[in-house]
Automatic annotation (TrEMBL), chain B:
HAMAP family: LeuD_type2
Aconitase A/isopropylmalate dehydratase small subunit swivel domain boundaries: 45-99
InterPro entries: Aconitase/3IPM_dehydase_swvl (IPR015928), AconitaseA/IPMdHydase_ssu_swvl (IPR000573), IPMI_Swivel (IPR033940), LeuD (IPR050075), LeuD_type2/HacB/DmdB (IPR011827)
Catalyzed reactions per annotation: (2R,3S)-3-isopropylmalate = (2S)-2-isopropylmalate
GO molecular function, one term: 3-isopropylmalate dehydratase activity
Organism: Ignisphaera aggregans
Pathway note: Amino-acid biosynthesis; L-leucine biosynthesis; L-leucine from 3-methyl-2-oxobutanoate: step 2/4
UniProt gene name: leuD
Keyword vocabulary terms for this entry: Amino-acid biosynthesis, Branched-chain amino acid biosynthesis, Leucine biosynthesis, Lyase
Enzyme Commission no: 4.2.1.33
Protein name (record): 3-isopropylmalate dehydratase small subunit
Lineage, top ranks: Archaea, Thermoproteota, Thermoprotei, Desulfurococcales, Desulfurococcaceae
Transmembrane spans: none
Role, per record: Catalyzes the isomerization between 2-isopropylmalate and 3-isopropylmalate, via the formation of 2-isopropylmaleate.
Recorded family membership: Belongs to the LeuD family. LeuD type 2 subfamily.
Assembly with partners or alone: Heterodimer of LeuC and LeuD.
Amino acid sequence: MNKSLTEKILERAAGKAVSPGDVIEIDVDIVAFHDLTGYHVIEVLEKATGSNTKIHSIDSLVVAFDHLVPPPDVRSAEIQQSIRSFARRNALRNFHDVGYGILHQVLLERYVLPGQVVMAADSHTTTSGALGAFAQGLGASDIAAIVLTGKTWVIVPHPFKIKLVGSLRKWITGKEVALEILRVFKADYFNGMSIEVFTEDPKTFPMDFRVTVANMGIEMNADALMFIPDAETIDYVKNERGFEPKLIVPDSNARYVDEYTIELDKVEFLVSAPHSVDNVKSVRDVWGTEVDYVFIGSCTNGRVSDFEIAAKIMKGKKVKARCIAIPASWNVFKRCMELGYIQTLVEAGCIVTYGTCGPCIGGHFGIAAPNETVVSTSNRNFIGRMGSPQAKIYLAGPAIAATAAVTGRIVEPGELA
Amino acid sequence: MIVEGRVIKLGDKIDTDVIIPAKHLKSTDPEYLAQHVFEPIDPEFYKKAKGAIIIAGKVFGMGSSREQAAIAIKAAGVRAIVAESFARIFYRNAINNGLPVIICPGISKEVNEGAWLKIDIESGEVTINNTKKIMCKPVTGMALKILEAGGLLEYLKNLRGV
Ligand code: SF4
């Protein structure tokens, strides 16, 4: 056999042999939504079925509030209230109210397993690909259809192989690797493809880094991005969930449309300059850019290793640019507290909360003003994304963001010495 | 299925934050959304959108899964979008809301702002100013079934016999 991971997962889900380009119907293992898309999903469900919505599989449905957390206005509170009452009416078991975590983080911590098909009403569902799941975002109507039927249709993507060799230099992370892929391929190259990432040595690319890269698979416009499950995947699931998962891996002679190798030792500090994610520049090319506001968090970079780096850089210093830091979940927040990272960030003058998308989507909790320069560890710097259309957003990894917070400029952490 | 209209041209990589900013996502009301379509780049867009066909470049609709992006464009009166390529989620959202989307590599160079376009959705034939004909990719498979039903909701109702 010569099947890629993409084909193996989709064959199981379709119950038949598949090839790239086929339009197929598949069973979905996990379907999910959050507050901001969830009310829309429920509207569609109710339009389709009246008030007697029959959920296909209660155990497969995951809901977590994150975008409007805590609710910034009456309408947001009302949206959450309506979803809460839907959860109660339908006796949902996997419902996470405010104060738990960003949906994609919750899915990783508690639900997703390697080889599953995951579909959620949010584009960054690709995040679950870090565990070797086939994970895609969909709109509210498509998700409503899955809630009712347990199935959806997909076009089998063409698999593309990326190999990671060597090891990263200090404080260079999964974020820089994601930006390196965008620098080389730009935002439209992977349309219609799924990226399968092979790590030469599981230890050189820990789970937190995989999550960041998979998260930004949607920025590459890939249909899916999956890390080939390995010892690191097993460790992660064991630690988080207490059991060893079964792994699905590609055949050794799997066929790919093409492949590309990234030498990790050569990856440097990178940023996405305004206003597109693939406008990737070396930090050296934007050196010294003055920064008004720094955001460390989001589903892209809201994990323990991100706050570890930020805390090491901010230790004993005070921020010059205003700084908002948001661990992606209650779990991450608690671990960061035990490790002293939260205390360090607070001492440095950051505002810290947890389990909300916060300013990532420009909804609340730190809107950017006109002409401000923002450094964000999030995943999108589109015009108006974090507030004013005149704000300029640079996307960066945790080290560059933390350094920008304490220096008020975009420079490498070596400058701090 | 034939769609006709006057061309409005847009560039590459039009993202969903530009199509409808997040601050408007607490509503799904088509009339409301239509008034804010493309607000960050052209707050007056909705005034000229009625009856138009959008011609765009690569990965139109990239970014978030917000279905309001497709709803807003359709409610503003846009009849169809022809683009070099579409982002996967937007493409499905458009079809699910009965907004025809046609993939057509090379289209940006062929068509000028204000041209008159006639599109045959099933065959993929696009006629420019009633003279020049070019072949684009037809809508097929599940997407065509859903579009013909008038959107995913109607398709679901038919399936369930509601
Ligand atoms: S953190 Fe940002 S990108 Fe992630 S789910 Fe929330 S709004 Fe979307």
